[in-house]
Amino acid sequence: MIEKLYIKNYLIIKEAEIEFDKGLNILTGETGAGKSIILDALSMILGERADFSLIRSNSDKLIIEGSFDFRRNKEVRDFLVSKELDDNDGYVIIRRELNQKGTSRNFINDTPIQLSDLKEFGDIIIDIHSQNEHQSLLKKETHIKILDNFIGPNDVFPEYSGLFEEYKVLVNEYMELTRRKDELIEKRDVIEFQLREINNVNPVKGEEPELENELSKVENVENIAQSIDTVLKILYDDEQSVYPSVSIALKELKDAVKYDSDLGKLSEDLESSYITIKEVSNFLNNYKSGINFDPVRVEQIRDRLGSLNFLKKKYNMSVDELVDKAEVLSKELDMTENYDYELGKLKKRVEAQKDDVYKRAVELSKIRKKSSIELEKDVNTYLNEVGLESAEFKIDISNVIAGDEQENFSYLVKNEKIVLSKSGIDNVEFLVKINKGSDFTPLRKSASGGEISRIMLAIKASLSGRDHVPILVFDEIDAGISGRIAGKVGRVMKKLANSHQIISITHLPQIAAMSERHFLIEKVDKDDETVTNIKTLSEDEKVQEVAKLISGEKVTEAAEKSARELIG
Question: How far is CA 520 from CA 74, 430, 483, 532, 545, in A?
Fold first, then answer.
């Protein structure tokens, strides 16, 4: 639950703090006093995009901070762990700051967090319903989302989604291959020429540095031989060379070891060097006898490097890249020659994947149809509770018939092509009949504003036992109703408050009377400026406010009596 909301420098709110109760929290006040600003501030700390024009005039920074208690909410604590955030034993403080420079900062438990992560967190903890959402309820595309929320998590949803995404990839590959057919055929002559030109040289990965090293060697035989002669003279061949001198030194050191064993390691090291000198001298003698200047080989290497350099400059590639290009050209040439075969293979994969997608879509459809009966029953029960006793709610689930342009994303069933989409094969639409004896018609065509509000509440109440969102916010969801109906709506909201924390703006006394905690939002003049004042009402003050909602600014005895009766 949200325990506290702190707002500073938000439009006409200079500074305010609201402490919420765990049940039904009601906000009332005159139009323009700032009630909706409070809910907008709540939306902002839960990831809504920043609007820097909301910063109060002559203020540097807007600050919104919400304190939450999620000690019993595993989903919230799992989220915090997944983002490597301190879970603070289930207590969460979210802070958002906007400044006049046009930058914003977001924090969860004093740790900076991305706005996208804040939005994800907000979707977990709060469901905000406004009059604008009533309009979204009239949009058919939202109906399948509502039904799926009612169904809740299951294995079929992610399995279908994965299969469908794989199918999309295959379809795109198939379409790309088809598109490239003419292009590859047109390029065939160029492909053949380039492949022939590269293959005539037949470059090998890694050969260029080897050739350059060999060329350096054969071109500098005399210099190499001269250096080797000098080394051999120093090490071995001359009377004053290193080898005989080391031999004498080694003999003397071995004699010394007889008297001091500590010199043994040095004797071994010197003997190893003595052997190494002998081995190096032997190797250099053999190497020298095996080298000679070969003008034919020099010309061969130069010709080979020349051919490689020609290709490198022409194609602006290294030797290794030329080898890779030849492989690509070879595959493209094979594709032009075996295009129909390759396309046929890919088409079989596409069709097999489409079969799997359709089978899983049918499973998903069965789940939806079964669950739709339960949702219909629950919504109809709540419709009766909110005063729509004659109304009946029904969910129509059908298939969308594909047009010719949807060939790749359709499935042929009994001579009809059914659309395959990311949500399956189902077209879900909410139907309603407001009066007995009338026909079911789409919700968007048959309900008034007040009826839409109550249908929305009935749907939310039906979802309440299955969703995991702990906080519900209603912004004047009671618009368009009054009297007896308002009382029924209030009782449903009160019932919802048993399982959820609810924050609601209302103008109706019947709903305000149901509150566990009642806040009065007022606009007052203070120090030559207009500010919003938020007051938590006592029981007596609550009676007076509910009475004002009944009779207007002047509270009559009858209104006060009615208010007490409503509050109970």
Answer: 34, 37, 22, 10, 8
Measured distance between the N- and C-terminal CA atoms of the chain, rounded to whole angstroms: 26
- CA-to-CA distance for 30 and 147, rounded, in angstroms? 37
Confidence of residue 71 (pLDDT cuts 50, 70, 90): confident
At 254, which amino acid appears? K
Task: Report which DSSP code applies to 527.
Answer: T
Phi/psi for 312 (5° steps) reads: -60, -45
CA distance 277 to 291: 21
Pick the residue with more confidence: 335 or 548? 548
Q: DSSP class of residue 90?
A: G
Q: How far is CA 545 from CA 35, 492, 555, in A?
A: 15, 22, 9
Task: For the chain, list the domains and their CATH numbers.
Answer: 1-132+469-537 (3.40.50.300), 190-336 (no CATH)
**Are 420 and 407 spatial neighbours (Cβ–Cβ below 8 Å)?**
no
Q: Do 523 and 12 form a contact (C-beta atoms < 8 A)?
A: yes
- Beta-strand runs (E) in 348-470: 392-399, 410-413, 416-419, 426-433, 441-442
Q: Degrees (nearest 5) of the Cα angle 474, 476, 480?
A: 135
- Helix H or strand E segment including 444: helix 443-446
**pTM as predicted:** 0.62
Q: What is the pLDDT of residue 358?
A: 94
Q: Report the candidate in 430, 423, 470, 424 with the shortest Cα–Cα distance to residue 447.
A: 430
Structure tokens at 391: 């109304």
Identify the top-confidence range among 118-132, 235-249, 468-482, 547-561.
547-561
Query: One-letter amino acid identity for 294?
Result: D
Q: How far is the C-alpha of 88 from the C-alpha of 69, rounded, in Å? A: 10
Is the pLDDT confidence value at 350 over 90? yes
132: confidence class by pLDDT, cuts 50, 70, 90: low
**For residue 376, what pLDDT band results from cuts at 50, 70 and 90?**
very high
- Give the model's confidence band at 470: pLDDT under 50 very low, under 70 low, under 90 confident, else very high: confident
Residue 183 pLDDT: 76
Q: Which two tokens stand for residue 527?
A: 């120090």
Chain centroid to CA 112: 18
Strands (E), 444-516: 471-475, 501-505
**Interhelix angle 483-496/449-464, nearest 10 degrees:** 20
Q: What Rg do the C-alpha atoms of the chain give, in angstroms? A: 42
In tens, the pLDDT along 258-310 reads: 888 888 888 888 888 888 888 888 888 887 777 776 778 878 888 999 999 99
Cα separation, 386 vs 392, in Å, equals 12
Place of tokens 């490597």: 84
Q: Which of 104, 60, 106 is nearest to 83 (CA)?
A: 106
Distance of alpha carbon 503 from alpha carbon 474, whole angstroms? 6
58 to 11, 62, 88, 359, 399: CA distances (angstroms): 11, 11, 36, 62, 57
Evaluate whether 391 touches 471 at the Cβ level (below 8 Å).
no
How many CB atoms are located within 10 Å of the residue 498 CB? 10
Q: Taking a C-beta distance cutoff of 8 angstroms, is the pair 308, 201 a contact?
A: yes
